[in-house]
Design a protein that fits this description.
With 397 residues, this protein is α/β, with parallel strands linked by helices. The protein folds into two domains: 133 residues, Aspartate Aminotransferase, domain 1; 248 residues, 3-Layer(aba) Sandwich (Aspartate Aminotransferase, domain 2). Helices cover 41% and strands 17% of the residues. It is built from 14 helices and 15 strands. It has a seven-stranded mixed sheet, with helices on both faces. The longest helix is centred in the C-terminal third of the chain and has 20 residues. The protein starts with 7 loop residues before the first helix and ends with a helix. The structure holds pyridoxal-5'-phosphate (PLP). Pyridoxal-5'-phosphate binds next to α5. The site of pyridoxal-5'-phosphate (PLP) has 13 residues, from α5. Belongs to the class-V pyridoxal-phosphate-dependent aminotransferase family. GO terms for molecular function: transaminase activity. Its cofactor is pyridoxal 5'-phosphate. This is Aminotransferase class V-fold PLP-dependent enzyme.
């Protein structure tokens, strides 16, 4: 299907609806993206009304609208609304899914080398608690995830495949649908960290074939901080342990027993900040109106241009490798620490971030990287901003 590129006029409009683009160049979308104004306004309006009306009273008034959030998220990732739980962030989502599994000593978990620190800590904790075996699949020399190695690592003790769609500190996109095919062929559970991908790349849980997926709201979705969601495929919901309970986890209860509710909301706390839920909903709505295919096309266009420009600057080394690269651009500058580069750019109102060695431990250790500059692009960024950033970097180098 042909994708219609976002026009200059559309980008201008989108930027005029994003107050943060006025005074700064924001290349830290992988940290937290700039939200559209409507996301902020929705939350502010709700909080004002809440202060006047009362928390429970306003919640009752907005009940149907709040509930619509699960529906819209399901639409975005091609799931069912009953498969979505709203949580605070991607780490919470991943933890709820992963710790809901039951492991036996000797069970094998296969992961990519691109896992984020939260996931690595969960894995190490399971190693301590259950004596599971962790097998890490490294990228090949071209920076691609080696599917044949994944398949070769599977044994009759393999209990889980857990990979990250787009890592925190590198530009490559993992072939998650091909990984899903392998998981299905061998009947192995598949947990996907889509923290950096939902909102950047089309994500279709049916096409990918994952059983569980962890997502955050504040990054490429452009939603509020403190928002995120967990997808759990209907057929496996009953096989996951429920880790925490409140009165809405269950469909019925008596003094002897209870029945857990029949959807993924069993995995979320009932008590949450409704302003954040509405903010997330607006962000998803905003994205659906633009179209994720168009977003992904522009992210690829801008980040390809950015990498080309960076590679032409003497003293800059771009680290991203792989056949498919997205909006997370990582590099080092000779003679300067990543921290220095970030600080210097900040004085010019340019936001970039650091990729710390710990944050993607397996990958950074293997590559011998102890910290990189991460400049992450989204669709609302522009060619002119790329020029400006490269000019500044050339001046420093
Ligand atoms: C790939 C990846 N997974 C998981 C996380 C954790 O997300 P959160 O901070 O929303 O818990 C991050 C955060 O940067 C990430 O980049």
């Amino acid at each position: 299907m042909e994708v219609k590129p976002l026009t200059t006029e559309e980008i201008r409009l989108i930027r005029s609806e994003t107050a943060g683009t006025l005074g700064r160049i924001h290349f830290n979308n992988a940290g937290a993206s700039l939200p559209p104004d409507v996301v902020v306004q929705t939350m502010v309006d709700f909080l004002r009304e809440e202060a006047l009306l009362g928390g429970y009273e306003i919640e009752a008034k907005y009940r149907a609208q709040l509930d619509h959030t699960h529906e819209l998220i399901a639409q975005l990732v091609n799931a069912n609304r009953n498969e979505i739980a709203l949580v605070e962030n991607a780490s919470a989502a991943w933890d709820i899914a992963f710790n809901g599994l039951t492991f036996q000593p000797g069970d094998e978990l296969i992961v990519s080398e691109m896992e984020y620190i939260s996931n690595i800590l969960g894995l190490l904790n399971a190693q301590k608690q259950y004596s599971v075996v962790i097998k890490v699949i490294s990228n090949d020399a071209a920076g691609n995830f080696p599917l044949t190695e994944l398949e070769a690592a599977i044994t009759d003790r393999t209990r889980l495949i857990a990979v990250t769609h787009i890592p925190s500190t590198a530009g490559n996109v993992l072939p998650v649908a091909a990984i899903g095919e392998i998981a299905r062929k061998h009947n192995i559970l598949y947990l996907l960290d889509a923290c950096q991908s939902v909102g950047q790349v089309p994500v279709d849980v049916q096409a990918i074939g994952c059983d569980m997926m962890a997502v955050t709201g504040r990054k490429y979705l452009r939603g509020p901080r403190g928002s995120g969601f967990l997808y759990v495929r209907r057929e496996i919901q009953d096989t996951l342990k429920v880790l925490f309970f409140d009165g809405r986890t269950i469909s019925s209860v008596n003094q002897q027993d209870f029945v857990v509710r029949a959807d993924a909301r069993r995995f979320e706390w009932y008590e949450k900040n409704p302003a954040i839920v509405l903010g997330l909903q607006k962000a998803v709505e905003y994205l659906l109106n633009i179209g994720i295919d168009r977003v992904w096309q522009r992210v690829q266009h801008l980040s390809t241009l950015f990498r080309q420009r960076l590679q032409a600057i003497e003293g800059i080394e771009v680290h991203d490798q792989g056949d498919v690269l997205g909006g997370i651009v990582t590099f080092s500058a000779t003679g300067m620490t990543a921290k220095d580069v970030r600080a210097k750019l900040a004085t010019k109102n340019i936001n970039v971030h650091l990729g710390l060695a710990n944050s993607t431990l397996y990958y950074m250790n293997r590559k011998g990287l102890d910290g990189i500059v991460r400049a992450s692009i989204h669709y609302y960024n522009t060619e002119e901003e790329i020029d400006r950033v490269c000019q500044e970097l050339a001046g420093m180098a």
